[in-house]
């Protein structure tokens, strides 16, 4: 995944006013302009947010007697914290596959 600066892309797609004399572009030209802007957009330093949730068993299926296991990295924790300690994953139940 390449995270790009959307503001930069939008800035490079102007002018976009239909009344502009430059507006007479075809759909194909418009797509090329968009692809060109996205391809050339600077990347941003960011890390995708990892989501997980607390369950009472490991991925292997083994149930824990106490505490909880994170779905993101299969690590045990004594309580349901808002973030998984190893990954700092947000424990809100999103991204079921992590
Ligand atoms: Zn985790």
Give a verbal description of the structure.
This protein is α+β, with helices and mostly antiparallel strands and 98 residues long. It has two domains: 6-40, no CATH class; 48-98, no CATH class. It has two helices and five strands, in the order ααβββββ. The chain has a three-stranded antiparallel β-sheet with strand order 1-2-3, with no helix packed on it. Strand 2 and strand 3 form a beta hairpin. Helix 1 (6-12) packs across helix 2. It binds zinc ion. Zinc ion binds at residues 52, 70, 72-73, 75, 84, 86-87, 89.
Can you tell me the residue ranges where pLDDT is under 50 for at least 5 consecutive residues? none
Strand order of the largest sheet: 1-2-3
The average pLDDT value, as a whole number, equals 84
- Please state the overall shape, judged from the principal axes of the Cα atoms: rod-shaped
Number of helices: 2
Radius of gyration: 22 Å
Proportion of strand residues: 5-15%
Number of domains: 2
How many beta strands in the DSSP annotation?
5
Sequence of secondary-structure elements: HHEEEEE
Small molecules (ligands, ions, cofactors) in the structure = zinc ion
Q: Can you give the helix content as a percent range?
A: 10-25%
Distance between the first and last residues' Cα:
16 Å
For the biggest sheet, the summary is:
3 strands, antiparallel
Structural class estimated from helices and strands: alpha+beta
